[in-house]
Structure formats: structure tokens, C-alpha cells
Design goal:
17% strand; globular; binds erythose-4-phosphate
Amino acid sequence: MKFFVDSAEIDQIAELNDLGMVDGVTTNPSLIMKSSRDIIEVTKEICSIVSGPVSAEVTATEAETMIAEGRKLSKIADNIAIKVPLTWDGLKACKVLSGEGNMVNVTLCFSANQALLAAKAGATFISPFIGRLDDINIDGMDLIEDIRVIYDNYGFETQILAASIRTVNHVLESARIGADVMTAPPAVIKSLASHPLTDKGLAAFLADIEKTGQKIL
Ligand code: E4P
């Protein structure tokens, strides 16, 4: 499973990237706002650090303007994935931009039928939002499962990018179902390393070695 970092914070992306944990990055307008950076500048900086796909989202709502914005974003670097919303206009933009050889990430997907349309429009990635479905008491994992089945039934090559990941269980379940990629905030990726029994075991080992008075260095 590929790991994308859902962030526009350079330090956090760089830290995870140095550890080999980053196969790509996703940003969105809210993350750009949080970073207080210019969208073009910060995206360029991210692309200079990470070699995998870096999603940058259009902000227009009409297909023609989305396409123009997408073309501008694609010039930032070779590894840009243009992110478009799952609207009818977004699908039109997806078809044109992917036809021009760009990676396209279709975002804000909340149903399997939407995912089917995105695949037919040539999307490189489909981003089903798990956490936001959970927020309204709909199991986001069912959506990932449905899309996996449908894409496999027909051999669609669009990659399932599990998004809006909020918990370690979202990561585990997405991996079990076979999502191709998951994107999560840096804190969620780091928390995958945590286990109370690891902490407890380590504390016991350290206490025991201290009793021996030995030191390695
Ligand atoms: C990723 O592409 C999405 O923008 C992101 O995962 C949304 O996450 P949120 O629902 O926690 O804002």
C-alpha cells in the first residue's frame, strides 16, 4: 500500500519523507489555508522534496476554468496530480486533463457510482472520503470495499486512494480491503508506530538493564 501524506506543511512532509514513509502528498484548499503559504510556491517546494505524485486541487467550479487551472498547476513539476472535485464539471475536466497525459485525482467521492464515473473519465486516483462518511454515521469502509469490487470486476486501473483517514483503524481496514493508496495527516501516520505493549515492554527492558549497571556506550 502506498502512503501519501495529507499536508502542506513542509517540515512534516520532509521528516516522513526522510524515513521513506512518503510515496506522495495530497493537499487541498483547506490545507493550503492552514499553511498560510502561496499555493503555487508551497506546491513547488513539496514537489522538490517528494518524487511521487503531489496532488494540487483546482478551485474553479466550471470545467473550462478547471482545465485552465489544471494546466497551470501541471506546469509546477512533472509529479503533479491535478485534483478535481467529483462533480459533472470535474469529470469533464478529468477527461480532458487525463487525455493530455496528466495524473488526475478525483476528490470528494462519497459513493461507488461516483467512483465508477471517475474511472470511466480516466482518473488516475479516486479519493473516497472515509472520515467524512463516518461523521454522518455511514461506514466509510463499505465504500472502499464497494469500489474495490467494482474496479476489479471490470479491470479499471484507477487507483483507490483512501482519503479523510482519521484513525489507525482506517489505515488497517483500507489495507485489508486493498486500497491502492491511503492519504493521512502526519500525526496519524506517526501514530501507526504506537502500541501500549511496546511502551510497557520497553520500560521493563530499560529498568532491567539499569539494574545490571551495564551500558553499551
Ligand atoms: C485528501 O486528499 C483529502 O483532502 C483529505 O484526506 C480530507 O481529509 P479530512 O476529511 O480529514 O479533511
